[in-house]
Design brief:
heterodimer; A: alpha+beta; Immunoglobulin-like; 2 domains; 6-stranded mixed β-sheet; 4-stranded antiparallel β-sheet; 8 helices; 37% helix; B: mainly beta; 5-stranded mixed β-sheet; elongated
């Protein structure tokens, strides 16, 4: 009986690698079939960010391969934007069609993209820095906001919205989440949901990496990062703020220059003061000066 | 930095150098130039010694060696600055004579001290002589 069960298990058909299959279908030009497989893969739990990026790249390729329609193109644009959100460098485009690559390149120059290295896990109870940068076209000086929620249970998450600080030197935006502050858990195992939104000065959303409905999921754990050997992107072991080397002192702030300028000002002011002293005014008939020997 | 400070200090000291002692003589009197007077003679006399240190003439009519005395139809009013640029003469007497032709028509006199780094203002009224 046991032997029969074992033989049945071993002979059961393995779960096909539907992502690889979709990749082959796209390469073969069978776009409609590829979309079916891609839909199935996207609904599976546990796709890695790399797999998600490839899913979006292949989906855009398949949509653009279908007979042209505005709706397909819009969906392809959406897929490529999501690909960049997961894969800021667009490495997943290696498996995409030329048309998808061209559209991705076009988007990179015509749209505003919020890019971030998505944090999957971080140590709990430590300050956490979340950084993002903007790519593509910029309209005015956009503002970036971090929306996060660390609620328990299956209730609808309520997000806390904080502005991200722009660091012009590195052209990145960052926000710090500190344990016990603003709804951030002070410790323990938690799921933190977040997304990053870029808003133009007029309040129009330019791009959002993650959304309230489909946020980035971050696991806060006391043990997971060390246990899993994952290089967590939290800054718990470092000072609260990164130590940036001071910028070189500009020439006009050096002591030598300042001292000379101050000296000239003092001397000039003294001379001006002396010269501005009222002088005895000669009478109407000024006969000049008489030097005594 | 040190060099700049030294240069600044020297320049500051140069700017603060005291002026030569001087006396601004302001003369006035009821004389119309050239109707009542056409020549001014001024003497700086060492006092109380009496030795003439310097004398100078101003003439309304052009005369060689005599500076110009401008017309003063509202009355005589003139000023001269005496600067002690050579040897020191601490106490001096200033004599002023107004002449019409060769006749002395006005006299004035005052004594004063030269003060280091200052210009002393000295008013000398010129009046008709009583002799």
């Amino acid at each position: 009986m046991v032997a029969v069960l074992l033989s049945l298990l071993l002979c059961a058909p393995a779960e096909p690698d539907r992502l690889a299959n979709a990749r082959s279908l796209v390469a073969a030009g069978k776009y409609a079939d590829a979309l079916v497989d891609l839909q199935a893969v996207s609904q599976m739990y546990g796709n890695t960010p790399r797999e998600q990026a490839e899913l979006f790249a292949l989906r855009a390729s398949a949509l653009l391969g279908l007979p042209g329609s505005a709706e397909h193109r819009l969906d392809a644009v959406e897929a490529l934007m999501q690909m960049y959100h997961v894969d800021p460098d667009g490495t997943a485009l290696a498996h995409a069609t030329d048309e998808a690559k061209a559209l991705a390149q076009h988007l990179r120059t015509q749209r505003t993209l919020v890019l971030t290295d998505r944090i999957v896990t971080a140590r709990s109870g430590r300050p956490l820095r979340i950084r993002a940068r903007l790519a593509g076209v910029r309209i005015g000086e956009p503002l970036l906001f971090l929306d996060y929620s660390a609620q328990h249970g299956g209730e609808e998450p309520e997000y806390v919205r904080i502005p991200m600080e722009h660091l012009p030197a590195a052209d990145v935006y960052e926000a710090w989440l500190r344990p016990g502050v603003g709804g951030v858990p002070g410790g323990g195992e938690h799921l933190l949901l977040y997304y990053i939104e870029a808003v133009d000065p007029g309040g129009i959303v330019l791009d959002s990496n993650g959304t309230a409905r489909d946020p980035i999921r971050l696991t806060l754990s006391d043990t997971l990062p060390e246990a899993a050997g994952i290089a967590a992107l939290d800054e718990g072991g470092r000072p609260a703020h990164p130590v940036l080397p001071p910028p070189p002192r500009p020439w006009y702030k050096r002591w030598g220059v300042l001292g000379t300028v101050a000296g000239v000002i003092v001397i000039g002011g003294t001379i001006a003061l002396i010269l501005s002293q009222p002088k005895p005014q000669p009478g109407q008939g000024n006969l000049g000066r008489l030097d005594l020997p | 930095m040190k060099r700049a400070a030294v240069i600044s200090l020297l320049a500051l000291c140069a700017a603060c150098k005291q002026q030569d002692p001087a006396v601004l003589i302001d003369m006035s009197g009821p004389f119309l130039v050239p109707a009542n007077a056409d020549k001014l003679h001024l003497e700086v006399v060492e006092w109380p010694g009496g030795n003439i240190i310097r004398g100078k003439d101003w003439c309304y009519n052009a005369v060689a060696g005599c500076d110009v005395l401008p017309a003063m139809p509202q009355g005589f009013s003139a000023s001269v600055t005496i600067v002690e640029s050579g040897s020191a003469h601490q106490h001096v007497k200033i004599n002023v004579e107004l002449m019409l032709g060769s006749t002395v028509v006005g006299l004035g006199s005052a004594t004063t001290d030269f003060l280091p780094g200052q210009t002393v203002i000295l008013l000398i009224p010129v009046t008709r002589p009583t002799f």
